[in-house]
Design brief:
alpha+beta, elongated, eleven-stranded antiparallel sheet, single chain, 11 strands, FlgD/Vpr_Ig-like, FlgD, FLgD_Tudor
Length: 259
């Protein structure tokens, strides 16, 4: 009887142990999963988001440097401590590198601001004519003539001017007075040697004169109409788009004309 009673008394204990295990399991499940009691809402509930650790910055900053320096000082050999001059030199070197990096960032920001400001100023040239260091000008219905400037090293009686087309053929030749010396204005009305208007396109103005008794080619600059402005890059700056000619840097403009 004692055996039967002992066996029968052990059953509730096993059941109690199983019940406790089940309770622990349910408790752990409930602690990890939150339910609302509504089967529909539980089925569409979004899964809990897992936190993603932020990426560590691999670059050493000033705080990292001082942390390493503190470790170096705390673990140094007491019989051979770090020289003060060496420690100051390390701190000065790091501060110099950090300062140069910040200076580079500020220069890049300044270049961006200057490029935007330059483009804004150049936009005021749209619709006007600028003098560019090129002897090639454009003939079109909007600009039936080409004006320019001949640069002379000294005064000369006569300057011979010839107009050439893109193939190098001479369209017209004429002379201008160069007795004033310096920069001499030149203008071509867009007519050939027979007095007929030329076709639209690009034409070059060549000039020559005698310097100390010898014939010499003279530099010619022409006016062009500014049709638009491009921002360009930090290296080039603002770009002026000239009608029929192409783009030119703002810094290459020699003069601005009212018309």
């Amino acid at each position: 009887m004692s055996l039967i009673n002992s066996y029968s008394q052990s059953l509730p204990q096993a059941s109690s142990s199983a019940t406790n295990t089940s309770a622990v399991t349910k408790s752990s499940v409930q602690s990890t999963t939150t339910t609302t009691g509504n089967s529909f809402l539980d089925s569409i509930r979004l899964p809990e988001e897992s936190e993603t650790p932020e990426a560590n910055d691999e670059m050493l900053n000033q705080e990292d440097f001082f942390a390493l320096l503190s470790q170096q000082l705390s673990m140094q050999d007491p019989f051979e401590p770090v020289d003060n001059d060496q420690m100051i030199a390390q701190m000065a070197s790091f501060s110099t590198v950090d300062g140069i990096s910040n200076l580079n960032d500020e220069i890049l920001n300044l270049n961006t601001v200057m490029s935007s400001s330059q483009a804004l100023q150049a936009s005021g040239l749209v619709g006007r004519k600028v003098l560019v260091p090129s002897d090639t000008g454009s003939i079109s219905a909007e600009s039936p003539s080409i004006n320019g400037v001949i640069s002379t090293p000294s005064a000369m009686d006569t300057i011979t001017v010839s107009v050439e087309d893109q193939s190098g053929q001479v369209i017209k030749s004429f002379s201008v007075d160069g007795s004033a010396g310096g920069n001499v204005d030149v203008s071509w009305d867009g007519l050939d040697k027979n007095g007929a208007p030329v076709e639209e396109g690009l034409y070059s103005i060549k000039a020559s004169g005698k310097v100390d008794g010898e014939a010499q080619e003279l530099a010619v600059s022409t006016y062009a109409h500014v049709s638009s402005v491009s921002l360009g890059t930090t290296a080039t700056g603002a770009i002026l788009n000239l009608r029929g000619v192409g783009g030119i840097k703002l810094t290459d403009v020699l003069a601005v004309s009212e018309t």
